Every structure is written in C-alpha cells, then in structure tokens.
Amino acid sequence: MPPLPSPLAPLTHDDPVHLGGHRLLARLGSGGMGTVYLARSAGGRTVALKTVHTRIAADTAFRTRFRLESDAARVIGDRYGARVFGADPLAPTPWLATEYVIGPQLDEAVRLGGPLAQASVRKLGADLARALGQLHRSDVVHRDLKPSNVMVTADGPKVIDFGIARALGDERLTSTGAAAGTPAFMSPEQAGGLDHTPAGDVFALAGVLVFAAAGHGPFGGGRPADLLYRVRYAEPDLGGVPAALVPLLARCLSKDPSLRPSTDELAELLAPCESAGFADGLPEPVLADIARRAAAVWQAPPPRLAAPADGPGTAVEARPGMPRRRFLAWSGGAAAAGTALAAGGGWWAWRGSRPDGAAKKKNPALQPPPEPLWWVDAVIPLTLPEPLFVGGALVAAMGITVAALDAGTGMSEMDFAGYADRWRVGTDGKVLYGLGKRATGTAPDKAVTVSALPLQYVEPGEEAPPRLRLPAYDGTHVLTQILGASGDTVFLHAKSAGAEQWWVVAASLASGKELWRQPSAGPTAQQVRVERPALVRLKAVRGGVLLWQRAEDRDALRVSLHDAANGTERWSAALVAPGATPEQPATDDDHVYVGAATLQALRLSDGRPAWSFGEGRDVGLVGGERRYGLPTVRDGVVYAVEGTRGIVALDSHTGAERWREAIPKTSAAQSAPSREVAPVATPNHVYALDALGVRAVDLSTRRLVWRYESDASALTADPSGTRLHVRGKSRMTALPMT
Q: Using the 8-state DSSP alphabet, how is residue 91 labeled?
C-alpha cells in the first residue's frame, strides 16, 4: 500500500497568522461552513482550531448555533469527546479551540482497515452510548451522529461536531417540521420533521454501529429523497452484521421510538463493564494511521502556499469583512457551500434571481424568457396533488413534509410536522385544513378528525382543537383525503371504520357533523402498496359539487354532479379519458370541459354534451394516447393542446374554433405542448409545458414567443394573476405572468 498523505495541509496565502491567541500551523480540513486548523497556543498546547467563514458569521442565528456547539462539546467532556480549551463565538471570525484528537474518523478507519471485529464494535457502541447519555442527562441531543462525526483513537472513540445539537425542547433555531441532519443516519421521526428526542440519537447510533460492523449504512446510499423514504418505511439492511448483534441493533432501529433501548441499557447490553484495550482490537492499518497522525503533530508544518501572481503576497491577521476563499466542498455531508439546508423535509436552497443554466440554449428566434421571481430547490414528489393557495401562501408537498411558502417571495413560512402527504390537507382559499395525524394501533381514538392548521408557528400544545370528529370513518388509513372545502363544508374521501367501503363525505365545520355521504371506489391494491390515494376529485360549481373518480388502471372516468346540501346525485356521465386526471376540472358557470378523443363540453345542468370538437381532425402523430389534452377556460375561450399541433382555442359556448397555434411541422414533435398538463391562460398569453420546458404563446400573434427551459411537470397560476408557479423534479419556480 502506498504511504498515506500527511493529515496536515498547508496554509493558504490568505489564512491568518494568529487567531484567538493561537499561532496557526496547518489546515486539518475546510468546507462550505469554515476551516479547521492545527494551531498552538502561547503556552505550547497543540489544538484543533475550528473557525467559521466570515460571510456565514454575519448570520446571528449561526453564531448562536456556534455557541451551542461549544457548550455541547463541554458537556460531553474529554472522556468521550474533544476537550474544549476556549471559544469566542462573538469574534469577527468565530473560533473554537479543542483538543486535537489523534486518529481517523470512523468512516476513514473502515475504509483503511475494513469493518471492525465484533468486540471492537461492542466497545465502540458502549462508549458512544455513554457519551450520548452524558449529553442527554444535560438535556442536549446530538441530532447528527454519523461515522464522520466519530473519531477513532487508541483510547476509544470520541464524538465530535455538535453543529446542530440543541437543548431538548428548544425550537428557536429549528422550525417545526425541519429535518436537520444527515439522511443516511436520521431517525424516522427526524426524517418526518418531528421532534428529535434521545431515542433518535439511539437510532442514529445503531446506524453507526451497522456501518462499523458491516461497512455499509442500514439504509444504503443514493439521493437524499430516496434515503429519507427508506429511513421512514423500509426495514434496515443488517447484512454483514455479526449474528449476536443483529437483534439488539434491530431493536435500536425500530420505527417506534418507544421500543428502542435507553443509552444506559444499550451500553450495558453491548459491554457490561468499561474495559481498556480498545486499541488491541483495531486493524493494523488503523493503528498505523493513528501513529502517523501523532507523529505529524511534532513535525515541521508544511510551508504556507504562495499567493497567486495577481493576488496579495502576505498573510494577515483575521479581521472583520475580510474576503475569504470560496470552498464548494461538502461540509459534514449536510450542506454544500453553505447554501443547502435540510428544511421542510427536503433539501432546500432559496434563491432570488435566475438559477444557473435556466436560459441556456435559447432559440435565437425567440425572446428571452422572463427572470424568475424566486425559486426553491427541494425534493418534490411529482405524483402528488398540485400546490394549494391559502391567502398569500403556497402550500405544497416538499420532500418529506408539507410546507407553506410565501407565494410572493418563496421564503418558507411553515412546515407542517407529521404531514408528509399533501392529500391530507385542503383549503377553501382562506383557511388550511388538515386531517388529524394518523393514530397508532394502540391509540384509543381512531376517528377521522379535521383541524385548522396555523400558517404561523405556534408553541407545542397551543394548537387549536379539531373542528370536526367523525368516528364512523377510519382515521388511521394513510389514503384518507381532504378533497376540498367550500364555506362551512369540508369534503373527504374516507373508509368506513368497520368495513372496506369508501365514501365521499361532506361535513359541517360549524356543527361538527356529517351532512351526507356517497359511496365511492376505494384505492386499488397498487395504490395502497405505493401509498397513493384513489383518483377521486371534487370541485364546487354552480348548482352543486362536481365529482370525478376512476380507478388508476382504467381509462373510464365517471363524472357526476351532487346537491351540495344533501349529496343527491343530479346526473352522471361515463367518459373515456386516458391519461392524467385533472386536479381541478375546467369549468365555468355553464359547462365542464373534457379533453380526450375529442374536446367536449358537458352541460352542468344535466350532464349532456353541449358540443364536441375534433372528431376526425388531423392532430398529428399521437398513437393511442389522448388526442386532446386537459383543457382550461378563461373569458369565454377554452384552451387545450391538440395532438402535436400545439394550442387550439375554442369558443366556450359553441365549440367553434377561434384560432390554432402555428407550429412549424419540422419542430412539431419536439415542441408540442404536453397533453397531460392543462395550459394556463392570461389576457395576453397562454402558457403550457413541452419536453423542453415552459412555453408562452402570444394571444395576438398565436405564436410561441419564449421558452423557459425546465424539467417541469406541473403549472399552477397564482390567484393574484401575476405569478406562474412551475414545479419540476427538484425545484419550484415562480415566473411573472403578463
């Protein structure tokens, strides 16, 4: 094996000479949040000096976190952590001086020497359990225990990096529902945006021990969204773990926090008594690395790097406002370049100007697209319902939770802890309603409940009581839906408490009583398996409520109109409508509009066809798919995508064609809008999606005028009429509408 590189990296030309009374010797590491130096005090003590980049230190909240990190490090002490020698979180460049721990991180140790022997894993786990217990007895939780936060020394493991530790019950620095931490080693409750208790640290510790024993984490790797899903719902992978440890680690990895052992019990089960000789069980490559690091402390530090030819040539003392080098490395595996935050259950980054590459490869014949008003990066489930608008807030499924954003700025306003499924919330446009959090199998109350959800943070325990409780329905079923709300009435899709029958239910929020119910198809076996609700949609229209429903694997769509007061069915119609089911059917005061083999209008008065357009018409090469896309209606005009020919506009009363978009035949197949997403119409433009992004057709010229490149899968118009919300695989963007 070639010799390992020195653990010390040279100082750069713009690193300070002294900081906090310490002379800097070398770099130990650097990332998006700050730099760790090897330094020496005036008295000759060698320390690890952690600093924060100046641009981040300007954030008051981050300084508070940095102070809490030093407090947590002091709490754990030098037996199981790195001894703290000094700190100044208020300095222009905040710093923390700790013992220089001589040894590799656990992930590096496993890379060097392979998985640890069972005896070493037991000793490692017992020491880490005692370390966490010391934190918990001081009412502190770590929240980010992982292999890279555990140092392997000759005397035993030490826990480091308390950057997101916090006092129990202190929510000031973590919004309710935030999922701060590292996905591969989060607990299910942490991944779900719930409170992280000491039991969550036990779950993370078990994941660390699986890694130490088997060389892999309990939930694999991959994208954060996939990891978070597996943490919440999948069984852990304990392959390679010694058989004697499997039952204990499986218990620690229970999805139910109450089933996990305490840290004291876990330490006792792993190693009944503290014993020396941890180094005796370490692989030879790890022991060699520890010796190498110990020797490096007393070797001459590497020479400082020279300044670039066009840059300053001397090192200076750290001072306020000093520009710092940008590092784009991951810091602690949780944030890149200081901009990616684990929040709202997803990996978020908010921006206020155009995202990189948004306007690349523009067609020179088109106008440039508008600058985004804002965008938010997040893991966005694409198969869930479209966003809701509640007052000035945009409520959408974002990663592992439902979040409310300020529709004007994109800034996060509220994460709804326990709401990972958007179909469990609904609105009348003014109030956000949510189904009660699902009861457990031992909970005494399994009724369906509906509450008004606050769009601003409230203290735990101060939430308003449920507005509605319906014991006739099963509140534990994950696929119960809020279909919508109108005035005093909320509409649900729910299963009977004692049977398999599903119902569309109308209930009064004022009286708390059921108004009526109609039998409905329940979710299919496939929908239950993948936890996707049945395709049942409802919309309040003139004359009652319009109900759309069908099975996921059939093209038959049943449309019916019901009396809003008693649920009596006034009419129904069976349609063949392959493809997507619209979230909100296109309606006006007279008709409901459907796109399928033709574009047709059904009368709201009796459900009979008022007109049909497109029979036998050449719409391009569409195969067996729907010929006409989901329509939208505005100001007496119905807009829909016609095959690969682009947008067609029809008179809403007669069905007569008003105009058709002019798409060159050479580009029709590539640029034809999606028939699975309804267009958005304004007085000047109609917007649609195609394979390249968002496209805008000018109503005066009937031609494409600009395209905004995106992987978007949904368009939503803000009720204000000024913003177009574009939802892609990992980004929500707001574009101005004209």
A: S
